[in-house]
Design a protein that fits this description.
This protein is an alpha/beta fold. The chain folds into two domains: about 270 residues, Zn peptidases (Aminopeptidase, 3-Layer(aba) Sandwich); about 120 residues, Glucose Oxidase, domain 1. It contains twelve helices and 16 strands. An eight-stranded mixed beta sheet has the order 1-10-12-11-13-16-14-15, sandwiched between helices. Strands 3-2-9-5-6-7-8-4 form an eight-stranded mixed beta sheet.
Length: about 425
């Protein structure tokens, strides 16, 4: 009998971890979550609800069950959200700007339709008393104010009279040097405002026109999607794996925010972990939660902590996943310096497996769905990968350019960390 080659011995030794990771599935998850049919997983066109239904189907397919106390994967809640489902345009005398590419509307903007003369402001305003007097005496109610990021920063640090004066304008356009960054709002402002890429705005223009169709949805119904794997020996204690599935929705009827890294990547990691632990149950029960309305202010996770479906005191640990698509510069562990024993355990595993480098830690931060849990005493980590692409809260966060640099390695690190936590 010929000796068995060492290469194959090594391959067989690592076969379970290779089989545990299905990157073809990961890419399918991302492509679906970021597809036009889910409308940026926001409230417009019920994109968030369609994403929740998609995830409940995946939970069922994997074999997760609803919680024993529930007959549904959904925990419903309500919130207010401003949306842009219809017409959205911004034009100068010389050009038509493209939503998402050249400009975005600020999230609290109301419906409006105007053609305005423009007034450009710059930092010289703060150096000339004559300019200041002229500005303060000018009627701005039929003007669009244009200024760049430098002016915007100065405006916040000067006398309130200048800041309040700008609020008289019919609209405000802030010129951005590098990128546009969208957010969400739960109410509408009195007047609209825009972010525009500076290189796309013609400095010689004298007028601009815009049309905005906004819809403030009051008491919009959303849901957390929750799946369960019963523990083999300690079923009444829990590990939570969480990630938010919502994103920023639409920017007018024709444009939407795909949200591949934020947070299609975290949801894809959650689904892969769910598949693994359904096939390889832990001693503790594992609860997988895809939270809704994170982008609107951690609303879904806050709702769960105020209306828990299991006792929070029974949660051994919570791992929250967001921005899992890179890793060129390592991974950050929020609360790593708070729960030092668990971070040391995680770091020891990482040192042995050489999964990510460096593995960084920081303290408390209200920047994702772990926050309200840890505020109520639940030991929690929030993982996000570092480096790589810079697309964030913009239309360029797409699956096609998301490298998933350390996706396999982070999956393995989390898997081993959970095993050590529950052994």
């Amino acid at each position: 009998m010929k000796p068995f080659p060492f290469f194959w011995l090594v391959l067989i030794a690592f076969m379970p971890s290779l089989q545990a990771q299905d990157m073809e599935k990961v890419h399918r998850y991302l492509d679906t979550l970021c597809s036009n049919g889910l409308h940026g997983r926001g409230a417009s066109f019920d994109g968030q609800k369609k994403a929740a239904l998609y995830l409940s189907d995946r939970f069922r397919e994997i074999g997760l069950t609803p919680l024993p106390s529930s007959d549904s994967y959904f925990q419903k809640f309500h919130y207010d959200i401003n949306t842009f489902p219809g017409k959205l345009s911004l034009r100068t005398a010389q050009s038509v700007l493209i939503p998402g590419i050249d400009f975005i509307v600020e999230p609290g903007s109301p419906s409006d339709n105007k053609k305005l003369k423009i007034m450009v402001l710059d930092s010289l305003l703060f150096c000339s008393e004559k300019r200041q007097k002229k500005f303060l005496s000018t009627n701005l109610r039929k003007k669009a104010l244009i200024y760049d990021e430098t002016f915007a920063k100065l405006l916040k640090t000067t006398s309130d009279q200048f800041f309040l004066k700008t609020k008289e304008a019919a609209c405000i356009v802030e010129l951005k040097e590098k990128k546009l960054t969208m957010g969400l709002a739960s109410s509408q402002n009195a007047k609209p405002s825009f972010q525009v890429l500076k290189q796309k705005f013609d400095a010689t223009t004298k007028t601009l026109s815009y049309e905005i169709e906004a819809a403030l949805l009051k008491n919009y119904e959303a849901e957390n999607v929750i799946g369960f794997v019963k523990g083999t020996s300690v079923p009444d204690s829990f590990i939570f794996i969480t990630a938010h599935y919502d994103h920023l929705g639409n920017l007018g009827a024709a444009q939407y925010f795909p949200g591949a890294n934020d947070n299609g990547s975290g949801i894809s990691m959650l689904l892969e972990l769910a598949r693994f632990f359904k096939e390889n149950p832990s001693r503790y029960s594992i609860i997988f939660i895809a939270f809704g309305a994170e982008e609107a202010g951690l609303i879904g996770s806050n709702y769960f902590t105020e209306n828990p479906l299991v006792a929070l005191s029974k949660i051994r640990f919570l791992i929250n996943l967001d921005l899992m698509g890179t890793g060129d510069e390592g991974m950050m562990v929020v609360n790593g310096s708070v729960f030092s024993a668990e971070f040391e355990l995680l770091n020891n595993i990482n040192t042995k497996t050489m999964s990510v480098s460096p593995l960084k830690k920081r303290g408390k931060a209200a920047n994702s769905d772990h926050f309200y849990f840890s505020e109520k005493g639940v030991p929690s980590f929030f993982f996000y990968t570092l480096g790589g692409i810079t697309a964030y809260h913009d239309v360029h966060d797409i699956p096609q350019t998301l490298p998933l640099t350390k996706f396999r390695e982070v999956f393995g690190l989390i898997k081993e960390f959970m095993k050590e936590l529950t052994d």
